[in-house]
Write a structure and sequence with these properties.
Layout: H1 5-13, H2 32-41, H3 43-51, H4 55-68, E1 72-76, E2 92-97, H5 100-111, E3 118-122, E4 135-141, H6 150-160, E5 161-171, H7 180-193, H8 201-206, E6 211-218, E7 224-230
GO biological process, one term: methylation
GO molecular function: S-adenosylmethionine-dependent methyltransferase activity
InterPro entries: Methyltransf_11 (IPR013216), Methyltransf_Superfamily (IPR050508), SAM-dependent_MTases_sf (IPR029063)
Length: about 230
């Protein structure tokens, strides 16, 4: 994983970046029911269609989490549970998802891991039921650009992650030369199926006052990035 100290400094300074300038326009909120319908509809095909394609990023995220040897991990957008077996056996794993159909498949995977402390919840991650500072590590595989309101999700993730804990984000961020044309080609239909193809790194990662520790390109032709963040908060 490539360490990016310069990027980390940028992450700390990001809140003052737009002082005196016009701030970036907020992202339009995706309809929650659109997101739920999409994932319920594709739950039976998700592993086949997206499992292998997105596996390198998912695997890199799980390896980064395992290297921390955390006592507890929260996976936001646990989906069908493709990463559950990759977390350390001693780690308490909690997964949340909006899709009941996806979560049912995750429960089947959890049942095949006897002796593991795994709890799965149907829950909106933008308004979680967990207490503050509940988890050592929070992972977000491919969820930040499909959640209805990304800024609310970030606030909730930071609330439930302990101070100094680690937040791992795997997501597609716009700006790649290779994917530029595809991003624009699907932009008009993206909201209908519950995702954003044009999703900026600066306005969704660097704008927050957490500490950016590392960024790694993952998946085919750098489709996604694994972002490692330290949850700095008062």
């Amino acid at each position: 994983m490539s360490s990016t100290p310069q990027a980390a400094r940028r992450g700390k300074q990001a809140p003052s970046r737009h002082d005196g300038a016009v701030p970036p326009a907020p992202l339009a909120a995706l309809p929650e029911q659109s997101v739920v319908r999409t994932y319920d509809r594709f739950s039976s095909l998700y592993d086949l269609v997206f499992g292998r394609v997105l596996e390198p990023g998912r695997r890199a995220m799980a390896q980064a989490a395992a290297a921390l040897q955390p006592a507890s991990v929260l996976e936001v957008g646990v989906g069908t549970g493709l990463t559950l077996a990759s977390y350390p056996q001693h780690t308490r794993v909690v997964g949340v998802d909006l899709s009941a159909e996806m979560l049912e498949r995750a429960r089947q995977r959890a049942a095949a891991l006897p002796g593991r402390d795994i709890a799965l919840h149907l829950m909106n991650a933008e308004a979680m039921d967990f207490e503050d500072d509940s988890f050592d590590c929070v992972t977000m595989p491919y969820v930040l650009s499909v959640t209805p309101q990304p800024s609310r999700l970030v606030a909730e993730v930071r609330r439930v992650c302990r101070p100094g804990g680690t937040i791992l984000v795997v997501n597609h961020f716009s700006g790649s030369r290779f994917w530029w044309l595809m991003e624009r080609a699907v932009r008009s239909m993206a909201q209908r199926v519950g995702f954003r193809s044009d999703f900026g790194f600066e306005e969704n990662i660097l704008v927050h006052d957490w500490q950016l520790q590392a960024v790694q390109s993952v998946n085919l032709f750098g489709l996604s990035r694994l972002v490692v963040l330290r949850n700095t908060k008062g």
